[in-house]
């Protein structure tokens, strides 16, 4: 049996904050692996700025240096809205002997009651909330909170920096930086 953390998201683009969260949770919970799951169409966000294929390639670039990280295309292959309940049912059917936890940002903990079929989902998977020291987050759902160092990097901030023609170096993995540059994503202008 493997213990696997799942980190879903738009990853538009993936950044060092995603990598730090995944590695910190993996170590703290003694997980065997963390799977990054790019969403096709997130139900709670606007459409991604770049294609699903570009986001997938960026996540692959971001995770390629860590043997404990991998990328699942489960939501991209399914298309349509990416509901976590559907993902969990599929994964539990395909990997019945493995144990999963679903990693969410601390900001999402208070909104779990808005997730599609959350009561059923709460029975299927352990949620792990990413917390910040000194900030108490409360939920009536079963969420295991893990404190991580403060990381103020977001995909929207990176996209805005690109729009403003500011550097994004050292905010994203090097392979993602080169992929964005080579493919002129987010209107990248060297």
Automatic annotation (TrEMBL):
Gene3D superfamilies registered for this protein in UniProt: HUPs
Keywords: ATP-binding, NAD, Nucleotide-binding, Nucleotidyltransferase, Pyridine nucleotide biosynthesis, Transferase
Cytidyltransferase-like domain segment(s): 6-161
Pfam families named among the record's database cross-references: CTP_transf_like
Pathway assignment: Cofactor biosynthesis; NAD(+) biosynthesis; deamido-NAD(+) from nicotinate D-ribonucleotide: step 1/1
Reactions listed under catalytic activity: nicotinate beta-D-ribonucleotide + ATP + H(+) = deamido-NAD(+) + diphosphate
A molecular-function term among this protein's GO annotations: nicotinate-nucleotide adenylyltransferase activity
EC number(s) on file: 2.7.7.18
NCBIfam families associated with the record: cyt_tran_rel, nicotinate (nicotinamide) nucleotide adenylyltransferase, PRK00071.1-3, PRK00071.1-4
Family recorded in the similarity comment: Belongs to the NadD family.
Function summary: Catalyzes the reversible adenylation of nicotinate mononucleotide (NaMN) to nicotinic acid adenine dinucleotide (NaAD).
PANTHER family tied to this protein: NICOTINATE-NUCLEOTIDE ADENYLYLTRANSFERASE-RELATED (PTHR39321), PHOSPHOPANTETHEINE ADENYLYLTRANSFERASE (PTHR39321:SF3)
Protein name, as recorded: Probable nicotinate-nucleotide adenylyltransferase
Gene: nadD
């Amino acid at each position: 049996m493997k213990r696997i953390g799942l980190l879903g998201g738009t990853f538009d683009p993936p950044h060092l904050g995603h990598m730090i969260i995944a590695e910190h949770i993996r170590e703290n919970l003694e997980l065997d692996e963390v799977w990054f799951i790019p969403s096709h169409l997130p139900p709670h966000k606007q459409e991604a700025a770049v294609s699903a294929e570009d986001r997938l390639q960026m996540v692959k670039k971001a995770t390629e240096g860590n043997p404990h990280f991998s990328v699942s295309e489960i939501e991209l292959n399914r298309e349509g809205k990416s509901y976590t309940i559907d993902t969990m049912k599929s994964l539990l059917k395909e990997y019945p002997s493995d144990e999963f936890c679903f990693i969410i940002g601390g900001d999402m903990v208070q909104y779990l009651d808005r997730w599609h079929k959350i009561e059923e989902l709460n029975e299927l998977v352990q949620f792990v909330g990413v917390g910040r020291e000194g900030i108490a987050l409360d939920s009536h759902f079963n969420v295991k909170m893990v404190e991580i160092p403060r990381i103020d990097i977001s995909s929207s901030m990176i996209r805005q920096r690109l729009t403003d023609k500011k550097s994004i170096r050292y905010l994203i993995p090097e392979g993602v930086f080169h992929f964005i540059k080579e493919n002129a994503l987010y209107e990248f202008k060297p």
